[in-house]
Amino acid sequence: MISVTINGQPQELEVSPETPILWVLRDFLALTGTRFGCGMGLCGACTVHLDGTAIRSCVTPISVAAGKNITSIESIENDSVGQRVQQAWMDEAVAQCGYCQGGQIMSAVSLLTTTPQPTDEQIDNAMSGNLCRCGTYPRIRKAIHRAAGTESLSTHTNGSQVQANDTLFREVKV
Amino acid sequence: MKTSDNRDQALQLANVSRRSFLKGIAASGALVLAVSWDPATAESEPRKYGADYMAHGWVDNPNIFIRVARDGQVTIINHRGEMGQGIRTSLVMVMADEMGADWQQVHVEQAIANEEKYGNQDTDGSRSMRHWFEPLRRAGAAARTMLEQAAANQWQVPVSECRTDVHAVVHTPSQRTLSFGSLAAAAAELPVPARQSLTLKTPDQWRYIMRTSNQPLAIDGMDINQGKALYAADMRVDNMLYAVIARPPSYGSRVKNVDASKALAIAGVVKVLELPSVTQPSGFEPLGGVAVLAEHTWAAIQGRNALRIEWDDSPAGDNAHYDSEAFRASLESKATQPGKPVRQVGDFSQAQRDSAQHLTATYYAPHLAQAPMEPMAALVSIQGDHAEVWSSVQNPQATRDGVAKRLGLKASNVTVNCALMGGAFGRKAKPDFVFEAADLSKAMGGRPVRVQWTREDDLHHSFYHTVALQHMEGTLDHNGQVSGWLHRILAPSISSQFAPDSGHLSDRELTQGIRNMPFDIPAIQQETGEALGHVRIGWFRSVYNIPHAFAIQSFVAELANAAGQDHKAFLLELLGPDRQIDPRTQGENWNYSEDPSRYPIDIKRYKNVIERVTQEADWGKTMPPNRGLGLAVHHSFVSYCAIVMDVEVTPTGDVIVHQADIAFDCGPQINPDRVRAQMEGACVMGIGIALMTEITAKNGRVQQDNFHQYLIPRINQVPRTIRVHAVNSDLDVPLGGAGEPGLPPVAPALCNAIFAASGKRIRSLPVADQLKS
Ligand code: FES
Ligand code: FES
C-alpha cells in the first residue's frame, strides 16, 4: 500500500512499488492526460509535477512519490500559472495533434513558477526535454512569452503575413 | 439537417442524385484497399478526378452532417481523421459558416467508419479540404436554406424576404427573427433543396472561412490543454486486457520457440499468445510474434521483457541480413549503369557531347520512421457477430473492412470509433495494429483487448519511408544554360508492400516530383534503377517528394554554382517562360488524382512563391561570416512551396538554423492559421530530416530503439523565427493540399544554405556530423 496525494486527493494505492507513476495514473486511476511517448525519459509527454517539480513519470516509480503530491495536467488549471499557460496555449493556437501538449504545459508551468520571465535560452533549457513531432515549437515559445507577459523579449517574430485584404474576396467557383 | 431527436426521418430525406452516384461507385467498393496505392485501378471506366475519384466519393446531404436541436445546439459531424491538421475545426467551420451557425453553439461529433454514408474518409494525400470544401459548403448552404424556408412558412412570407443572421433567421422587412432552435423541428420536415437551387454565401458574407482574424477557436484546443482529449490509448471498457507484442525482428521472420514461463510469473500477466507470421508481400497484415496480455500496461511490458524467444529468420530471406550501409553501396554501384527509361526529351548524350560543362552528383536519403508522438494503440471487443473498434486511424473504412474480413463478420457489423490521432504522418494509414487487437480479442473469446505499441515497437516495425539513391547528371552549354538533365533513381517502391517487388518505382511514385518536373531543358532523361525493399515500405508525409526534391533542388543549386550564376536567377531561368503545363504531356497521368485541366503545372505559381520568399528573406543581402541563405522550391499535392533558410555553420561544424521563410500557395486558404501551422510543423520535421533523423539497419534489425537514437528536432534546434508567407491565389484557383507540400523543399533549402555558409555540399542525408571533420 502506497499513500500518495494525486491532484489534491489522498490515495492509497495497491500497486507494486516499482510501477512507473505514468501507468499508475493512466491504467489504475484513468487519468489519461499524462501520455506515453517513449518510456525512457526522452520525450516529456509523461511530465507531471512531484511536489511542484516537473518529472518524467514514465521512469519514476510510484514508490518515490510516497507521502508526496503528484499534480497532473488534469488539475493544473487550479494553479494560477497553470491557468495562464493554458490560456496562452489557446491564444497562440499551439496544439496540433495535442499529444505532447500536456507534457509541454507541465514543463512550461514548472519553468514559469521558478522563472516568471524566462529568456529564450531559459525556455530552450527548460523545454528541450519535451518533443513535439508536429513541430509546434515556435508557438510554444510564443505562448510561454505570452503567459510571462514578455512578448517583447521574444526574438521570435510573427510567423505569418497574409497579403490579401481580409474582407475582399472574389467568389470561389464551385 | 435534422432535429437531433429525429434520426430516422433524416434517412428518408436522402438526396436522390447522391443515391444514383453511390450506385455507380458501388461496384468498385471492394477495391478500397487497392485504390489507395494502385494507379492502374479501373482504367476501363471513364476517368474521374478529385473527390469523385476516391472510394465512395463525396456526400453533400445536410441530413448526414448537420443536426439542430430545439435548444439551438448545432451538432456537426466530422467524418475525416483528425491527426493534428485541425480538420475537426476546419471542415466543421465550413459548414457552420455556410449555414450561419454561431461557433459558440456548435458541437462536433466524430463519425464512425461508414463511407457508404459519409463518402470517402481515407485521410491522407492532403485531400480533406481540397475534396470536401465544396460538398460541405453545399451541405451548410442547404441547411441554411431549409431554416430560412421554415421561417418563411411560419411567417407566411416569401422566402426571398428572409435571410440568415448569426444563428437565427431574420425577416428583412419586419426585422422579426426566429432562432435556429425554434426552427429546427419545422426545418427538419422540409425536403433537402436541389443542389442546383442552392445560393452559396459570397465570400464577404463568410464570418470564419478564410479569415485571418476572427478565427474560430480550435474545437479540441482546451480539451488538449487540460488533458481531456481522448486518443486511442485512452479508450477503456470493462474487463479489458492490455496487450504488448514482441514482433519478429526482421520483416518475415517468425517464432521458432518461446519460453513464456518467466513472463507468466509476473503479477498481472494473464496470458501469452503466439501470433501467426506473415508472408510477403504482407500489405497491412500484422507481423505476428508473441503477445503478452495483462491487467495493465506495465505488467504487459514487463511480461514481454521476460519472454525468451528464439526467432527463425529463414522465412525472411534477404531481409534477415539487411544492412542499410551495404545496401547503399550496392545502389551506388548500380546507379552508374543505365536504368529503365521513365521519360525522355531530346538526346542527353548529344547534350553531353556538346556541353561546356558536365556535372555528376549522387544523392542519398535514408529510411525514416513517421514516429507519431502517440505510439499505435487499438482496442477491439467482439460480442457475438458484432465487433467494436476504438482506435486512431487515418483510414477508418479500410480498418472496418479489414477487421470484418479477418473476423468473418459483415462489415456493417463492425463499428470503428475514431479517436484523435496523436500524430500519424502516414503511419496510421496502415491498420496493422488494429488487426492485432482484433486477432487477440478473437483468441480471447471476444474479450476486449487493447494493444499498446511502445516507441521501440514503432521504430522497429514501421512501414518505413523509402531509402533513395539518386544519380544526377547535368550539362551546361557555352552560355551557362542547362542543356541536359539526367535523373536516375534507385529506391524501393511502396508497391513492394502489396505485390511482388518489381524493384522499380511505380508510376505514381515517379509523379511525385520526377515526371512532373517543370524545367524547360532541351534534353531530359529520367530513369529508374532496381532497388528491392527489405523492410516494410510505406507512406510518410510527402512520400517520394522528399528524396526527389532533395536531389533536384540541390542539383539545380550545384549547376547554378558551376555556371557562376545566382541560384535564384538560375532557377527562374530553368523554369522557363510562364506557362501552364498539362502534366499528361510529360507522361504524368496521376496529378494527385486531380483533373489536369483544373490543376495544370503552373510555372507562374512556381515563380510567385520563389519571388515572394526571396523578397521576404532579402535574398542577395550580405551575410555575416559562416552564414548563408539557401533556396528551394517544390510543387506537390497540387500546391507550390518555396523556402529560404538562413543557416550558420560554426567553425566546429555545428549547424544553426537562424530563420526559415516559407512562401506557400495552396490556392485559397480556408483556415489560414491551420495552413500556417502545417507549414511551421513541416519546417521543423524537415529540419530533422536534413540534420539528424535516420533509420538504419544491420543484420536485418533496425538499429534505432528510441528517441536517444532516432533523433527528431527539439525546441533548441529549430529556428526561433519561422515565417510563413501566404501567396494568395485568386479565389478561382482550385484548392491545393496543405499538410504535406511544406516538407519536401526544407532539406534542400537547408543544404543549399549550408553550401552558401561553408562551401560544403551535402549530398547525403542527414547532415549528422558530416561537417565536423
Ligand atoms: S514517456 Fe516519459 S519521457 Fe517519454
Ligand atoms: S502537437 Fe503533436 S506532438 Fe506536439
TrEMBL record, chain A:
Domain 2Fe-2S ferredoxin-type residues, every copy: 1-76
Domain of life of the source: Bacteria
CDD domains on file: fer2
Pfam families linked to this entry: Fer2, Fer2_2
Record key words, sorted: 2Fe-2S, Iron, Iron-sulfur, Metal-binding, Oxidoreductase
MF annotations from Gene Ontology: 2 iron, 2 sulfur cluster binding; metal ion binding; oxidoreductase activity
Gene3D superfamilies, sorted: 3.10.20.30, [2Fe-2S]-binding domain
Ribosomal protein listed as a keyword: no
Protein name stated in the entry: (2Fe-2S)-binding protein
Protein species of origin: Pseudomaricurvus hydrocarbonicus
Taxonomy of the source species: Bacteria, Pseudomonadati, Pseudomonadota, Gammaproteobacteria, Cellvibrionales
UniProtKB/TrEMBL annotation, chain B:
Residue ranges occupied by any Aldehyde oxidase/xanthine dehydrogenase a/b hammerhead domain in the UniProt entry: 226-315
One Pfam family hit: MoCoBD_2
A molecular-function term among this protein's GO annotations: oxidoreductase activity
Gene3D superfamilies in alphabetical order: Aldehyde oxidase/xanthine dehydrogenase, a/b hammerhead (3.90.1170.50), Aldehyde oxidase/xanthine dehydrogenase, molybdopterin binding domain (3.30.365.10)
Domain of life: Bacteria
Keyword terms: Signal
SUPFAM superfamilies: Molybdenum cofactor-binding domain
Annotated PROSITE patterns: TAT
Keyword field contains Acyltransferase: no
InterPro entries according to UniProt: Ald_Oxase/Xan_DH_a/b, AldOxase/xan_DH_MoCoBD1, AldOxase/xan_DH_MoCoBD2, AldOxase/xan_DH_Mopterin-bd_sf, N-heterocyclic_Hydroxylase, OxRdtase_Mopterin-bd_su_IorB, TAT_signal, TAT_signal_bac_arc
Protein name in UniProt: Xanthine dehydrogenase family protein molybdopterin-binding subunit
Biological source species: Pseudomaricurvus hydrocarbonicus
